[in-house]
């Protein structure tokens, strides 16, 4: 298993792995916004340094990705994605640990993520990695059903 920071040219790989992993949420109400993202939007965000992405490879095949944004004293990670057929092999945990190390190397003290409340299994996964709930709120968007979100964070040492 090898995790590397993605360059803008790898945006298509990031999108394919992410959308393959988020396919199961396609029927959610509303569906995950991950399904609407494009290679171009990801490429632009990485190129403009608005976000960073990392890709996990096993035998030169992309099996997982994570995206993140630096904030003042924290790192926000999102769209943690592992191909369905590769789940249960520690890939997600390795990607989260990669984010935590990256955050610490940049002097960040906190890493956080947001999870839909409709996915309690994901909340439990992050809790096992030392994350705790610090906020709950409802997302409301025009012409879409509202949904509940749980924010989780973890302190990291620099």
UniProtKB/TrEMBL annotation:
UniProt keywords, alphabetically: Acyltransferase, Transferase
Record has Acyltransferase as a keyword: yes
Gene3D superfamilies recorded: 3.40.630.30
InterPro entries referenced in this protein's UniProt entry, alphabetically: Acyl_CoA_acyltransferase, Bact_Acetyltransf, GNAT_dom
UniProt cross-references to Pfam families, sorted A to Z: Acetyltransf_1
UniProt GO molecular function: acyltransferase activity, transferring groups other than amino-acyl groups
UniProt domain N-acetyltransferase: residue ranges: 1-157
PANTHER family xref list: AMINOALKYLPHOSPHONATE N-ACETYLTRANSFERASE-RELATED-RELATED (PTHR43877)
Name under which the protein is recorded: GNAT family N-acetyltransferase
Organism: Salibacterium salarium
């Amino acid at each position: 298993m090898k995790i590397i920071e993605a360059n803008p040219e790898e945006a298509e790989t990031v999108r394919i792995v992410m959308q393959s992993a988020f396919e199961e949420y396609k029927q959610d109400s509303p569906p995950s916004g991950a399904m609407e993202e494009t290679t171009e939007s990801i490429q632009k965000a990485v190129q403009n340094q608005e976000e960073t992405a990392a890709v996990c490879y096993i035998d030169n095949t992309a099996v997982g990705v994570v995206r993140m944004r630096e904030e003042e004293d924290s790192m926000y990670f999102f769209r943690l994605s592992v191909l369905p057929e590769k789940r249960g092999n520690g890939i997600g945990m390795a990607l989260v640990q990669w984010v935590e190390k990256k955050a610490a190397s940049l002097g960040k003290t906190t890493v956080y993520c947001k999870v839909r409340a409709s996915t309690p299994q994901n909340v439990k996964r992050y809790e096992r990695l030392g994350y705790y709930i610090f906020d709950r709120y409802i997302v409301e968007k025009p012409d879409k059903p509202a949904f509940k979100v749980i924010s989780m964070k973890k302190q990291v040492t620099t």
